[in-house]
Design brief:
By secondary structure, the chain is an alpha/beta fold. It has helices at residues 2-30, 48-59, 72-85, 99-104, 112-115, 123-129, 153-158, 168-179, 200-211, 227-242, 254-262, 276-282, 321-331, 334-343, 361-372, 385-400, 406-422, and strands at 32-38, 63-69, 91-94, 108-109, 140-146, 149-152, 186-188, 217-218, 221-222, 266-270, 288-291, 304-315, 347-348, 374-376. The strands form three sheets. Strands 1, 2, 3, 4, 5, 12, 13 and 14 form an eight-stranded mixed β-sheet that branches. The chain has a four-stranded mixed β-sheet with strand order 7-10-6-11. Strands 8-9 form a two-stranded antiparallel ribbon. α11 crosses α12 (276-282). The relative contact order is 0.17.
Length: 423
């Protein structure tokens, strides 16, 4: 009898010893780390995004969000490298014109699979851009940006102007006057480098085309020989002939041109409203603002501007896809959406979000512009966007140096784009 009791006691003791060990193992399995690669954090007000992530972690105690932040210029290249190694981050920011490339490389899972089984109200983001590509919805829109004309108020006033240019003729006049203020002062800067991400075509070329109500695709077909596009090439060529473009623009990335503007050396720059904060961070004393992109003198229609978004998607390599999707959806909900938009001088994609722009005069002006122009982006859903843009940028020096006419350039680029799209 005593022997049986002793055996029973031993079994109970062993059982008790193993209970906490097993509980600890289960708890460890419940802990989830979500890697989130994006370029957003560097373009937001300092500390805001980190605090937002901390809020999420507090409300989801088993989740740790690891931010992988880098400049926009580097994100696409890094994601493609990691896709080949099959170790993509769980969640990553998506620049919509790159979506087709990411899908070609099988980098995303459809976000709609998780949206449909959640209480997320997708109707609140449909208008901002919940597009269907290849029969599926892959990403959620978080914020929207426009690409207005940034202008240096101090340089403009020193050159004798009190309000930003509204027409292309005024723009050339202003740029020439600013260029004559002295050394290291230039009318306008561009970033036409062919290095990744090579997206200068979308900003430094297409913004002028959209302002004229032009497009490079018409009814799904290439439209580079249209008059608005040809007129834009003529305009850019004239700026170079006038000597008002910052030296080295053919070799610079857009980020370098933005640094020049922040340093007070440029009168004008076309850029995203997301870069308002970067300029402020680089030079808090710079007196600048934003305006509509100038239009031809005889143009009477509604102006246009390039629009971009910060989208978010879940990678095919995510180990905990449900948790990753829950985090992605959270970013697009009213509260977080409002905070991200306000801290990045953008506009929330969630229709229920109402950011308070009081005390932010530049963001207020950007919002005013957004309400009065057409919002355009011809590359959404198109494949091989970077290859097409790089093909144009490789030929641009011939136009810049007067070796080829605008009509020849447009025709040549259109032929090359057709080959790229047929591959």
């Amino acid at each position: 009898m005593n022997t049986r009791l002793r055996l029973l006691g031993t079994v109970l003791a062993v059982t008790i010893l193993f209970v906490p060990v097993m509980s600890s193992s289960v708890a460890a399995q419940d802990n989830v780390t979500i890697e989130f690669m994006q370029w957003w954090q560097p373009e937001m007000e300092e500390g805001v995004f980190e605090a937002l992530i901390e809020d999420y972690e507090e409300s989801h105690p088993n989740v740790n969000v690891k931010l992988l932040s880098m400049p926009f210029d580097e994100v696409r290249s890094q994601l493609l490298v990691q896709a080949k190694a099959r170790n993509l981050p769980d969640v990553f920011g998506v620049h919509p014109p790159y979506l087709a490339t990411y899908l070609e490389n099988d980098m995303l899972v459809p976000i709609e699979d998780y949206v449909e089984n959640s209480d997320f109200n997708v109707d609140n983001v449909r208008a901002a851009g919940y597009e269907e590509v290849n029969g599926k919805h892959w990403t959620l829109p978080v914020t929207t940006f426009i690409y207005p004309l940034f202008y240096n108020k101090s340089l403009m006033e020193e050159a004798g102007f009190t309000s930003p240019p509204e027409t292309l003729l005024e723009f050339k006049t202003y740029a020439k006057a600013i260029n004559e203020l002295g050394p290291n002062k230039y009318g306008v800067g561009f970033g036409f480098s062919t290095s990744a991400p090579a997206d200068a075509f979308s900003t430094d070329v297409m913004d002028w085309v959209y302002a004229r109500n032009g497009h490079i695709f018409k009814d799904g077909e290439l439209n580079l020989t249209s008059q608005p596009f040809l007129d834009t090439l003529i305009f850019l060529q004239k700026l170079n002939e006038m000597g008002v473009v910052s030296p080295g623009s053919l070799a610079k990335q857009h980020s370098k041109a933005m640094e020049e503007f922040a340093a007070g050396r440029l009168g004008f720059l076309l850029s995203s409203t997301a870069h308002i904060q970067i300029v402020k961070n680089r030079n808090p004393d710079l007196d600048f603002n934003v305006a509509k992109v100038p239009v031809p003198m005889d143009y009477s229609g509604q102006g246009g501007t390039r629009v971009a978004r910060w989208d978010v998607g879940v990678s095919r390599d995510a180990e905990d896809k449900e948790e990753a999707a829950e985090f992605a959806m959270w970013l697009a909900t009213k509260g977080p959406n409002t905070k991200v938009a306000m801290a990045s001088n953008s506009f929330p994609s969630n229709a229920a979000a109402k950011p308070d722009l009081s005390g932010k005069p530049i963001a207020e002006k950007a919002f005013e512009i957004k309400q009065t122009v057409r919002l355009e982006e011809d590359f959404i859903g198109k494949s091989k966007v970077t290859d097409m843009q790089r093909a144009f940028l490789r030929k641009l020096p011939q136009l810049w140096n007067g070796k080829i006419a605008p009509e020849e350039l447009a025709s040549s680029v259109q032929d090359e784009w057709k080959e790229i799209l047929s591959e």
